[in-house]
Design a protein that fits this description.
Blueprint (H helix, E strand, L loop, with lengths): L15 H6 L2 E11 L8 E6 L6 E6 L7 H4 L3 E5 L5 E3 L2 E3 L2 E2 L1 E3 L5 E3 L14
Antiparallel strand pairs: 1-2, 1-4, 2-3, 4-7, 5-6, 8-9
Length: 122
């Protein structure tokens, strides 16, 4: 299940050039708000990707494993070059990445060590 709540099967093969077009960056969560209007329990995030990209908004269905305090100041990975997506009354500007835990919860993908904000995944 993606963070947008869509179940996916194994994806079709793509070229390395296609993969390079997906811009995945490291950001730091600077604000976490409840999102009571969401269909599934979720948070609204503001994520700082450093001076090149700045602060962007995202929504995550990560309430099973994370409190708001757990998320604040956490480094996360997100796709920053998808078009914005309307999620109820909220416009999500980036896709924060996570994987399913097998029981319907989302576990966020995070860098193992401290790395600079805005660092691009390769």
């Amino acid at each position: 299940m993606s963070c947008f709540g869509v179940m996916t099967a194994q994806a079709a093969p793509l070229s390395y050039a296609e993969f390079e077009r997906v811009d995945i960056r490291v950001g730091r969560v600077v604000e976490v708000l409840d999102f009571p209007e969401a269909r599934k329990p979720a948070y609204k995030l503001r994520i700082d990707f450093g001076p090149e990209i700045g602060i962007r908004k995202s929504s995550v269905q990560a309430t099973k494993h994370y409190t708001k305090d757990d998320l604040l100041n956490r480094r996360v990975l997100a796709v920053v070059n998808f078009p914005p997506k309307q999620i109820g009354p909220y416009m999500s500007e980036v896709l924060t990445l996570g994987v399913p835990d097998g029981e319907g919860g989302v576990v966020l993908l995070v860098p193992e060590r401290e790395v600079p904000l805005g660092g691009r995944m390769f």
